[in-house]
Design goal:
By secondary structure, the chain is α/β, with parallel strands linked by helices. It has 11 helices and 8 strands. The protein starts with 5 loop residues before the first helix and ends with a helix. Bound molecules: cytidine-5'-diphosphate. The site of cytidine-5'-diphosphate has 17 residues, from helix 2, helix 3, helix 6 and helix 10.
Length: about 230
Amino acid sequence: MNVLSLPEMEHKITIAVDGFASCGKSTLAKGVAQALNYVYIDTGAMYRAVTLYCIEQEVDIENAEAIEQALNALDIRFKTIAGKNTTFLNGRNVEENIRKMQVNNRVSEVAAVSAVRCTLVRQQQEMGREKGVVLDGRDIGTVVFPDAELKLFMTASIEVRTQRRLLELQAKGQTVSSEEIAQNLQHRDHIDSTRADSPLKQAEDAIVIDNSHLNQEEQLAMCLVLAKLRGAS
Ligand code: CDP
């Protein structure tokens, strides 16, 4: 008789969450990963870490070759600290610094550099090699894991996105106006959607979620149903 043991029956899938800036991708991706006991990979944090390095080391962000050189000196890792996904750059906890406006203001320029994308995409593919992962970003369903079993494309109104980011930054003690945030989100969306290398776009087989009027519990419940339908366990 062929009896399957529990681990063999498990079916791990890859879940790609793409979409515009500050529309709740990471909240959803973290929730789904936690519920399914999957690994969460915050690809935006990786682009943010490269940007922080360039700012701190005064690498000229207008100079793609200088950024490419800098990549050799970078080691980006994630660790879970007090239950939270935390980004480390060359051994230093940079989780707080990568979310500051100075990084928001330059990250899309850095993320448009092909050498940066090439290096980070390779690392992301390696991290997700064994499935059982939820990744959020801009190019996950189109470039990083085009064969992902479940692809979500998230969007929300600019007012809702601005308000969410404002509250997030205020909670961290940062002083910033909603005008500045709205401008930054729209500016990043524009650069991210129009860059030559792997622009932000909806994968043909992605499911669109406009969460302007959905709360966190509702969107999580919806995605867990979708994940199960795609065979996740
Ligand atoms: O949290 P938020 O939506 O504001 O941004 P993020 O996901 O942390 O991503 C920050 C920036 O990194 C984006 O605006 C993109 O320029 C870049 N990014 C990218 O190009 N590709 C990814 N897979 C993830 C992020």
